[in-house]
Amino acid sequence: MTSTRNRHSRLCFARAFPDSIEAYRDAHARLLNFAGDFRDIPDDSGIAGSTVYYRFSYEVARWLAKRAPGEVSIDWDAIDDTTRLDELLAQVLRPSEDEYFDSGYATSHEWIDMARGKSTGTDFDWLMKQIGDERRRPFWCQLYDAVDLPLAWDLSGSKYSKSANVLSTDPIFSRQSGMRPRPRAVSRAIKTPFESIEQLSAREGKRLIDVAMASLAVRHRETNHFNYANANEVYLADVGQGIAIAVFGLLPEHRFPLECTMGFLILSNGVPVGYGGSSILFQQVNTGINIFDEYRGSEASFLWVQVMRVYHALAGCTRFIANVYQFGGENTEALNSGAFWFYYRLGYRPVLAQVRKLAQRESSRIKRDRKYRSDLKTLRKLTSCDMHLTLPGAKQSELFDEKWLITSSMLASRSLAAAESGSREQSANRVAAQLARDIDLRSLHRWSPQERHAFIRIAPIIAAVSPAKWPGDEKRGLRELLRAKGGNDEARYAMLLSKNDTLLKSLIKTCRRAESE
After folding, report:
1. What is the arithmetic mean of pLDDT over 95-118?
2. DSSP assignment letter at 70
3. Which residue in 106, 214, 314, 471 could disulfide with 110, CB within 3.0 to 4.6 Å?
4. 140 is in which domain, residue-wise?
């Protein structure tokens, strides 16, 4: 089985980074026929012909029911206790069915088989049809996730297996000249502007979201960046030689009040080779890269620089933050692989002075002795704090410490408490109304429902900085920023936020004052 998996991985690599067009066509054809050519395909490999066993969240299960009908079934052998499932099923029963369902004469499995009769599809398909009312989506999401339902996804003929999940693209690029190394001047490369970054149509955006969702699901992974991706806000940047970076905004109802959260997918000749998420705040972005196993040994350093380049272009980011988990901490795989040095060679530096000095000593030792490797004890010290990469011109005073997100949340609670209304909803509306008066916003009637909703969500935080005394032009800029938060393109909000020094300084000052009290 190991040899089968390795053979498949080599073909995947050859399709994404082919030596020639002929090599691409051969690899692609062999991958599409892989299930017919091999019988010893291991399950949970994501390969065509295998079965993926996993307990997906409601959002991924909902996506599977819509995009892969007939492929997914309930894995009854993995269910020891049906209590939570019965609670879910109780919500779809008709009153006339209660007595028999509660009698215990039939198991949950037997009852579903009977209830679905001769309906097409699997037991999972039937279940998802019963709980698919969009108006009650939060309710069904909570109930379904509580079940933690084990599923079996048959990839025999699925277009979403690792073997088949490719975005159609033309032309195909070969790599006769090999892989591109990391740029010598990383900061300069990040600041290099794109000729254009295409914003896709909703139809094209949905197709890319499907590719992104599938690329994770077959690998037992999922992320809210893809689960809640907005088909109307998908950007695609061409970085040459068949490499494209797709960036996904979130649906308005799933956006964070202050931050701008976006996900990205890296494609090579239409093949998903890596992904990541990001939290954009003022001029900084907290993000990291994950290259899928099949594509390790490609041009990860170059690709990561291009991802940072995209975020700089879309949101004006000048500081890139890598949290400890990206290269160590509780991430044993990243720690043992020496991921710290991947970031360090690109220009990331530890934020703590003593760790930065240790890194400098270790780096000098590695340069003197190419065979030297930092031992595990040293790596643990090196990975004890975050790392930052800053572009020329970025100032330490512009850094919004991530702990202040918690402080900002506390300030929001204070703002709501000060409103002294009978309910939390009334308090939120009262805070929003007062903020509107403070920034000379006469009316929200011309704002869309999602713009008004976003304004109410962020208002308790903005109210804490007391903008009533700001000059007129700064109030005008704040009004534009707050409206953009609920707009169709949250990237515009991120760019406006990166340029709003008054809000940045006011929020930092307010957070520091709150911490000192």
Report:
1. 93
2. T
3. 106
4. 2-154
